[in-house]
Amino acid sequence: MNGSAETRELSFAEAIRDATAVCLQRDPRVFVIGLGVPDPKGIFGTTTGLASEFGADRVLDAPLSENALTGLVIGAALGGRRPILTHQRVDFALLSLEQIVNQAAKWFYMFDGRGGTVPIVIRMIIGRGWGQGPQHAQSLSSWFAHIPGLKVVAPASPADAKGMFIASVEDENPVIFLEHRWLHGMRGPVPTGYHRTPLGKCRVARTGGDVTVVASAHSVIEAMRAADFAAAHAHIEFDVVDVRCLNPLDFETIADSVRKTRRLVVVDDDSRHCGFAGEVVARVCEAGLPLMAPPVRVTWPDCPSPSSAALAEVFYPSDRDVFVAVGKLVGRGLEHATHFPKRPGPVDVPNLEFPGPF
Amino acid sequence: MSPSPKPSSNPALAYGTGVPPDLKHLHLEMLRIRVIERRIAERYREQEMRCPVHLSIGQEAVAVGVCAHLQPADKVMSAHRSHGHYLAKGGNVRAMIAELYGRADGCCGGRGGSMHLMDRDSGFWGAVPIVGSTLPIALGLALADKQCGGNARTVAFFGEGATEEGVFTETLNLACVLRVPLLFICENNGFSVYTPLAPRRSPDFRFSDYVRSHGCHYFSGDGNDVEAVCRVTGEALAAMHADPGRPCVVEFATWRYYEHCGPAQDDHLNYRNQAEIEHWSMRDPLAISRARLIAAQPGLEAELDLAEQRQRQDIDAVIEAVRAGVRPSPETLPRGVFAP
């Protein structure tokens, strides 16, 4: 990676704040804008203190106006700035789809380069739990990845959150930067100072020979828990491929893994129909990679994400579901599913410290 | 610090120079746009220009009167009916015609067509056909300029239909809240495609009140009188100069003589009432300026006719040169989905 080898322990949210501060520090063209960016909660701690450190001219609060704000950052980028736009939920960004899809994604292409580039980062947070419900907990990552011209980033670790955030800000293209809300509190080693992780390259999060499990963002966490359990109890070894970037997609890393394991499970925190998991399966099939069994998708069911914890529990695939999917595919180990450990505490929070309400 | 008005290289410029607008220059510029668009309309029937065209015939005075105040470094954005704005801002004619013909040397390499014009060298920063969509982008350009301490002016042209889009209100509010001096130029031609204002606005709607209540200047004028456009735009720019950071909306009443989209006139469809058609037919911006020029200088007629003849020859030469040009090669199709 480019940058520092020293690390310190940070949460995913702190890593994004750290990355934003690095960008603001290094490049005077960078500014951050969005509803609540300088507020006391600082977008779940991802922007806390930045306004006092870098000034209200570079860390801006804004009206809700998602669509105009998106146009504003497009225009500012065309004018030579490097804006970062923040939405507290993916769902809110839907009000700006016109600007994202028609303008940001196409500007460079449709003017044959003569219109300039649109180096913007649009942060969107995928909600989950505590009854977020149908309009505060969508992923829609496949939607964005479907649009030519948009880069779609969905990191799973604090280190990648920082490295890919900096790479996103430095990229000449519009980047949709997806942050799963349940990752914000997760901690891990993060390189200090400038640290850049190139976009468009998968990370092999765990190496094993029995099955390829492809995942991104919070799905990686579920896949890794399933992998730990499977290795310890069922002697099944996962190759976990953390996609990190849905577009451009590093299919070669996925293909290399599938060539080795000849089994494929795709875990995708999103709806199933016409989704990213289907895209990975299709590419593996089209590539003619030999498989010992049909590929499997572990996704949300094709219904909106419900609020009640009783419904959410069955809506979201769990680490255990990943384990069961793999067990069925490999043809062994399923007898261990009954003692797959439940996460401590209520099912609708990422951890015992999470106090709600969002 | 407020930016000081810059002297202009444009002989028509009124604001900041003390020089009154040169009506003859303004007229010839309108005539040039009219001649080019008439020729587009005529040759469109050959079906070689294979893209939707939205002609601004009848609306030339707004484009010319506003752009007379601008320098190449000033930035203009527009929407689907943008030929006039592009040309008045100094956009490359050949690149525009080539774009309509889908040629490789078009201003978007044949990727955009009439509805996507671009010539940043002349300060035309783009037009797209999603109504209202360039308004916030223009605001972003103006914000970038403000952040960099520049003093270029940014102008967004749009039709009155755009004011019905949420993004207009969002942009207006954002401009006022962020104190970004965008000049909004609204061409109110009374119709969105075939739909008049009545089904689109309450009879109680007052655009001026609406704009001002956001904290924005509002001016209005006769969009078919190029001198009026020039004067009102000058007043708007002066107001913005006196109160840096406050954006301004200028609304010009005007009328398109051709159909919404395409090369023909369509009054036989009866979507516009006869009295209005007759009223506006007497208010052709070119007829108005020509009559004034000839009244002031009898004998100018021949000079103007000659100029028109030359303009026709010029555009015909451009069209023939463009038609002889190459189309984009198929292997360029995937180029530039992502910027390097």
Q: Give the topology string of chain B: H per helix, E per strand.
A: HHEHHEHEHEEEHEHEHHH
Structural class of chain B: alpha/beta
Return Rg of chain A in Å.
20 Å
Name of the level-1 CATH class of the largest domain in chain A: Alpha Beta
Characterize the largest beta sheet of chain B: strand count, sense, and whether it forms a barrel: 6 strands, parallel
Q: What is the CATH domain class of chain B?
A: Alpha Beta
Unreliable residue stretches of chain A: none
Tally of structural domains of chain B: 1
Major sheet of chain A: order of its strands?
4-3-5-6-8-7-14
General shape of chain A: globular
Q: Determine the strand fraction of chain B and express it as a percent band.
A: 5-15%
- Please state the overall shape of chain B, judged from the principal axes of the Cα atoms: globular
Determine the fraction of residues in helical runs of chain B and give it as a percent range: 40-55%
Query: Total number of helical segments of chain A?
Result: 14
Number of strands of chain A: 16
Which short descriptors sum up this protein?
heterodimer; A: alpha/beta; Rossmann fold; 7-stranded mixed beta sheet; 16 strands; 36% helix; B: 340 residues; alpha/beta; 6-stranded parallel beta sheet; 11 helices; 41% helix; globular
In short, what is this structure?
The complex is a heterodimer of chains A (358) and B (340). By secondary structure, chain A is of the alpha/beta class. Chain A has helices at residues 12-26, 42-45, 50-54, 66-78, 90-93, 97-104, 107-110, 141-146, 158-170, 218-234, 251-261, 276-286, 309-315, 319-330, and strands at 2-3, 7-11, 30-33, 59-60, 82-87, 121-126, 151-153, 175-180, 187-191, 195-196, 203-206, 211-215, 238-242, 245-247, 264-271, 296-300.
